[in-house]
Amino acid sequence: MREPGREVTWAELDERTTALANGLIEDCGVQPGDRVAILDKNSIAYLELMFAVAKAGAVSAPVNWRLAPREVRTVVDDSQAVLCVTGEEFAAHTDGVGTRVLRFDELPRSDGPDPRRDSDPSDVVWQLHTSGTTGIPKGAMLTHDNLYAGYPGILLECPEMREGAPALVAMPLYHIGGCGWAGAAMYAGATLVVVREIVPAALLRTIVEERVSCGFLVPAVLLFLSQVPEIQSADLSHLRRILYGASPITPELLTRCVELFGCEFTQVYGLTETTGAISTLRHDEHSGERLLSCGRPNLGSSVRVVDAEDRDLPAGEVGELLISGRQIMRGYYNREGDTAEAIRDGWFHAGDAAALDTDGYIYIRDRIKDMIVTGGENVYPIEVESVIAEHPGVADVAVIGVPDHRWGETVKAVVVLRPGAAVTEADVIEFCRSRLAGFKRPTSVDVVEAIPRNPTGKILKRELREPYWQGQQRRVAGSGV
Fold first, then answer.
1. Pick from 32, 240, 416, 456: most CB atoms within 10 A?
2. How far apart are CA 446 and CA 464, in angstroms?
3. How confident is the model at residue 46 (pLDDT cuts 50, 70, 90)?
4. What is the dihedral of CA 424, 426, 427, 428, to 10 degrees?
5. What residues contact residue 139 under an 8 Å CB cut-off, 6+ apart?
6. Mapped to the 3 state alphabet, what secondary structure does 29-69 carry?
7. Can you give the pLDDT at residue 471?
8. pLDDT of 16 higher than 70
9. CB-based contact 317:340 (threshold 8 Å)
10. Vertex 247, ends 413 and 303: CA angle to 5°?
């Protein structure tokens, strides 16, 4: 694996993680099943620590480095970590956490053989906290078996990720799209090209200079890369495939990226709780109506779409997506009630509003709690966002429901304009007139500098909605993520 100024071979990785595992055991007292919190941006040292923790029989509990110090303390304390390892940049964020704190450069190492602590496939190895868009993050417990159940499916859909091939690891390692992808690349024997953080122009240079063959990126990063002027002349002939997912993508952005990058694009769908991807839309399926799909279930995964009583719905009808298979998490750490609510009769309730077609393709309409109910009609924001994104003057868009005394709530669009564009509220509404039913069209449009997103590119709808719903006694569907 490589990062700027450093390269580590597989033999060196094995040697270093063994020494670190022994140090964790002997000097830090780490026992099987203990949680070790990790707070830093991407690095080879981060990946080494995750493997050393596993060799010690313990559980890595990565922490989102974008969190405020108070939020970091909440997540670390919720994980009940016996140790918190932090990068120098975030050392101050760990003040007040209820456990021992060490910087990466302070980690102990000890000579000796691999500790080879006994483990079972059902043992937890990673504990990833959900993004928190629905409230306080919950620790999703992922087992060895969860990880190994998913790797073959990723390799099947990304044959370019093979021994020695440069695979981009750019998404944050505290997220399943980062550590899960990195794990799959290591499983394949690929050469990991580790990017510390997303800076679009620098990321493009890395892709070119490292002659990256494949990578996983979220749509927001694809949007940023597509706006880097140098991409028009960049040599991307070595790039074979980009997998994308974790948040919705508009057909307009996808079409533009296919033209700019000149490689195959594969969409994957999954969640932290499903250990990442459980469905795939292959490159040759990116056409027509299927552009709105996230593909069909991967080998070993099954899906259903059900109504509020968990009754299966016929093809074409929208309900909640349920998922089963070996990739489903063991549960939420110390949250038995939330676990029982999320996993019922072996089926994980994804919280996504979806439909299946007659061929088994999955169409995610939106998060169920993002749905707007206006005058008794359901509006899925992603449908409206996809239309507005086609406007030549719009660079980014989010659609939310806001209070309306007549209809309960109504549709509002929040847009970011392209440089130099002069687009009015009336222009956007008129653009939608022939493309959307009347109840789906925005009744108001706000122009902003940037749309708030979490690190995986998901729009923070709750943050957008909050100013409009303050003081409201009843927040109807779509108001509280």
1. 456
2. 11
3. very high
4. 90
5. 61, 78, 79, 127, 128, 129, 332, 333, 334, 335
6. CCCCCCEEEEECCCCHHHHHHHHHHHHCCCEEEECCCCCCH
7. 66
8. yes
9. no
10. 120
